[in-house]
Structure formats: structure tokens, C-alpha cells
Amino acid sequence: MKWKTITETVWDRLKNEKRPIVLYGMGDGADKILRVFEGCGIKASGVFASDEFVRGHDFAGFPVRTLAQTIDIFGKDIVIVISFASQRAEVLEKMYELDTRFDVVAPDVPVAGEGIFDLEFVNEYKNEFDKVFELLADERSKQVLDEMICFKLTGKIEHLRLGEDNKSEIFTNILKPSLNEHFVDLGAYNGDTIREILSYTHGKFASITALEPDKRNFKKLTKYVEENLSGDIKLENAGAWDSDCILTFAERAGRNSRISKKGIETNMRAVDSILAGKECTFLKMDVEGSEKEAIFGAMQTLQKWKPKLNIAAYHRNEDLFALILQIYEICPEYKFYIRHHPYVPAWDVNLYAK
User: Fold this and answer.
1) Closest CA to 150 of 177, 129, 179
2) Could you please report the per-residue DSSP string of 83-94?
3) Residue 207 and residue 204: Cα distance in Å, rounded?
4) Each residue of 200-239: pLDDT tens digit?
5) Any idea what DSSP says for residue 137?
6) Are 196 and 221 in contact (CB under 8 A)?
7) Same domain? 204 vs 282
8) What is the domain-level CATH number for residue 204?
């Protein structure tokens, strides 16, 4: 695999960089990157944003400039650090265009958990990565895994693009949703994945069970279902876990949620408890870093029904290997696939299995 030839990470590069390092973007992603900068002794020189977001304000002690203003100050020989995430086509095109004109990197920082994805990390888990590589069912999955590791180590967008596939490929050729799926959606958001699955089944399904912990998202999910669907549908305002319980999360929704002593008390459910032995033929998980626990909570379902799987594998550094190995231990009959769909950085990397 290509990643085994890499000897310098993006963090090593930036630490030794003599040119001005400027962040493109603001927010949580930029905050995380700046914290790693501080720990690694990397010095940022400035921050810029897309022209429409520049309003004379500051971020992290830097005035937020346009790219043109940044070039006026530092010149064109700069290193641009993409510091936010996007899957919007027009934003991705802007990132790709920057990559043709400048030295651009998009350092990987985990959505959940601690630490960075560096050479020490991949060498520590080399055997696990090798085992997953052998378990993958097709050559494309092996290539995608290699490119994602290369990206996480180097921050170079080219690896994302080499490992990128449209979602229709995996649904049409591998998962092939049927007209009578018993669909379980963990992290249902506003019903986006339900809509996606039903687009392949002409709106047909046997049953739908959907969990969404965020109250605002749950209202949107409920509204979508009430206005568009009828049949055997169960919606629950809860998160997915390894057991039925109540956990307290910090008062920051979505990708920034984490267990805390103070915050929002959230109902958590295990799939095995919700279904109580009922059939599941298609199981989707995108639960913001709680995939490991959600899988443990679905052990009986996996073993009894062996549903098709669509599981987010990008929230934690270890997700690229740990989730596959966990499921393999529970149900070794699965065939495993990995795909990355258009996104910068390496978000929307999913584990698929059947």
C-alpha cells in the first residue's frame, strides 16, 4: 500500500515550513487545527475566507481577509490550510481550483475523540490495517482505504479525489435496496437517508425504525415522515448506544456532542432492545462517533438477520479499521466495502457490508 512509503506527515511539513501558513476558513475545524499547531510548534500567519464571508471581523486573533488581501500582504508563495469541511459541489470546486494554484493541504483532525492520525498512530495499528485490507471484498475498497490513509497522513486533496465515488455506485451495484426492506436508521437527521434509500425502491418499504437525538432535527424528521410516508414506521427522539439508558451530553449539538457531567440529558437506545427480535434487513449508522457502542447494541440483530450495513467510518481516528474488525468478530460472514463520497476533508467515508 502507498501509505507505507510515507515518511513525512502534514504536521511535520508545516512545522518545518518557512513560507507563510494561512488558514482558509473559520469555526470548530480551524480551532482544532490551531490547537494541534500549538502542540506541534506550528505558526500560522493569517486567516482568509471566501469573499462573501469577510466582514471586517477577527478569528483566533487574526483579521479575517479575502484571498486577494492575503496575497497582497504575503505574496503568492504561501501554504493554504483548508480548515473547514464541505460537500457542496461549488465549494469543492473552489478548493480544487485553489489546489491547482497554491500549495494546499487539508489536515485531518478527528470529529470525535482525541489524538492525531500520524505515523505513530498508523504504525501502532499496522496489523489492524493489514487485516482490514485483507477482509475487504473488492479492489476498489482496498484502493479507497489506502488513499484515505494517505490523505490523513499528508493532507493532500489528490488522495481524496483518487478515492472518491458517487453514492449511486455502492447502492446500485452492492447494496441494491429492495422493495421490502426493514430499514433501521440510527442518526436519522431530517430523513435524508430514508429519502435516499426510498429513491432506489420507488418509495416502497416493509418497515422503518428511525432514531434521532437532536430535538430540532427530530421535528424535521417527523414532519417529513408525516407529510410523505405511511405504513409501519417508528420514530424515536433518542440516540443509539449499547444499552437503553440516559446520558448527558455537552450542550453542543451534532458533531461536537460529547458525554459530559453537565448538559443535555439524552435518551439512548440499543437496536436489539428497540426491535426485540423483529426483522432488520438494512441498518444505517451515522451517530457522531458512537458507532462502536451502537454496533454492540445491535449484536443480536446482526447475528440473527445479517442486515445490509451503511455505517459512517470517519468520526474517530480508529474507525477505518476498528469498526470492520468489530463487526467481523460478531458476524464473520459479512463482505466488507469502503467508499468515500465527495467531501473535504475525509468525511463521508463509509463502511458498507452485506
Assistant:
1) 129
2) -S-B--HHHHHH
3) 9
4) 999 999 999 999 999 999 999 999 999 999 999 999 999 9
5) S
6) no
7) yes
8) 3.40.50.150
* Ranges of H-type helices in the chain: 10-15, 28-40, 67-74, 89-101, 119-124, 126-135, 139-154, 157-162, 167-170, 192-199, 215-228, 271-275, 291-296, 299-305, 319-330
- Compute the mean pLDDT over every residue in the chain, rounded to the nearest whole number: 95
**What is the mean pLDDT of the segment spanning 24-48?**
95
Q: Which residues lie across from 182 on neighbouring strands?
A: 207
pTM: 0.93
| SS3 of the chain: helix, strand, coil, percent, to 5 | 40, 20, 40
Residues 322, 338 contacting (CB under 8 angstroms): no
Q: Are residues 112 and 235 in the same domain?
A: no
Q: Is 318 within a domain?
A: no
> What is the number of domains present in the chain?
2
Domain encompassing residue 148: 2-162
| DSSP structural state of residue 347 | -
**Residues linked to residue 157 through DSSP beta bridges, in sequence order:** none
Average the pLDDT over 302-323 and give the result: 97
Query: What CATH number does residue 42 fall under?
Result: 3.40.50.20
Do residues 308 and 281 make contact, with C-beta atoms less than 8 angstroms apart? yes
Question: What is the average per-residue pLDDT within 19-27?
Answer: 96
